[in-house]
Design brief:
Length: 367
């Protein structure tokens, strides 16, 4: 007997796994779908994650996606199904996965007369798992007419869904910059090249870059480090930041601006540098026709909220630039102070799993 959706949620929440290490998670999903083996085809294009094919007619496919990875964060909720390791589903991916699993069981069990792909995607938090899935070519085998996904949040009340026509999630690009100088004793600074001075100059020059206040834009720096001991001129300095925009092109343009600034610092100071892009997610775009269609369909069962755009990133953007897409926030708030995503106290209630299933069913029934 396969697990219920809530039971699967508890199992995954207790045993979270990091990006591209979701081996037990993938195995648990596959094993609990074995009762439907005669009616579905399970594809494993990567070492973790699954694409489950439900094919019943000659029409196109609807793609529904959930992310399955967790975060390197220690849980502090104290719930009965709290994490058994040092990781945590602090972004609600356990809920996403359980909702998609429950929706799959409904669609296959009810013999729904529509072709559906269920994507249990690895590596959303780091590494762009959606892009890796697409790079395998697995999705190109199918005529996909539309794609759908959700993300839980306690910003909105339970029983609500929220979305936005156009951009819903920003383009997000990780940026790592390292400065290279030459160490010396601080008593003899003339014998060294202080890499931290290059970092400091960089910060001043970034602040001087003109920005159009009408265009949403963030260059945030979350981590800075330099040197090794108190009496040695730092031979290296490093910063880690992120560019958030509503346009991948604007992100590309600003990244080039960073390179020009770093070249200028190198010319003036002889401090060398490296600049690298980490994870890069394009903006998530909600198709306006799908938005209107689903907003109308949702009005009977859900409190539909127009959320506007958010500067958070989501790798569903890789999918939304290939297929007409609709992504939405699934409200989990209960009227108390919200913990927020990526927080060791974030814990959506189990009712959010069924709400997610119902939201997917509502979308399916609107076609």
């Amino acid at each position: 007997m396969s697990l219920t959706a809530v039971e699967l949620r508890h199992l995954l929440h207790q045993n979270p796994e990091l990006s591209f290490e979701e081996y037990a998670t993938t195995r648990a999903i596959a094993e609990n779908l074995s009762e439907f083996s005669a009616r579905i085809k399970v594809h494993a294009p990567l070492e973790t994650g699954l694409v489950v094919e439900y094919h019943v007619n000659s029409g196109p496919y609807l793609l529904f996606r959930a992310d399955i990875d967790a975060l390197p964060l220690e849980e502090k909720t104290g719930c009965q199904f709290s994490s058994n390791n040092a990781f945590m589903h602090a972004c609600g991916h356990d809920v996403h996965t359980a909702a998609l699993y429950g929706f799959l069981k409904y669609a296959v069990g009810a013999h729904v007369d529509k072709n559906i792909l269920f994507l249990f995607q690895p590596g959303e938090e780091t590494g762009g798992g959606a892009q890796r899935i697409m790079d395998t070519g697995i999705l190109k085998r199918f005529n996909i007419s539309a794609a759908f996904s959700t993300h839980v949040t306690d910003e909105y009340p339970a029983g609500s869904i929220a979305s936005n026509p156009g951009v819903l999630f920003a383009s997000a690009r990780e940026v790592d910059i390292e400065f290279f100088g030459k160490s010396s004793h601080i008593a003899f600074p003339e014998k060294g090249i202080n890499a931290f001075n290059g970092l400091r100059m960089f910060l001043d020059m970034i602040d001087a870059v003109p920005q159009n206040e009408a265009i949403p834009f963030i260059f945030g720096i979350g981590k800075i480090s330099a040197g090794c001991v108190r009496n040695i001129v730092p031979a290296s300095a490093r910063l880690e930041g992120s560019i958030r925009t509503l346009s991948s092109k604007l992100s590309d343009d600003f990244y080039e601006t960073l390179g020009r600034i770093l070249d200028s610092i190198k010319t003036r100071t002889a401090i060398n540098y490296s600049i690298k892009t980490g994870s890069f997610y394009p903006e998530v775009k909600v198709d306006e026709a799908l938005y209107s269609q689903i907003k109308k369909a949702a009005s009977d069962k859900f409190n539909f909220i127009v959320s506007g755009y958010k500067m958070t990133g989501e790798d569903f953007g890789f999918i939304s630039r290939e297929y007409p897409s609709f992504m939405f926030w699934l409200g989990t708030g209960g009227g108390q102070t919200s913990a927020g995503l990526h927080n060791p106290m974030f814990l959506p209630g189990d009712e959010s799993v069924q709400n997610g299933i119902e939201a997917f069913k509502m979308i399916l029934n609107s076609f």
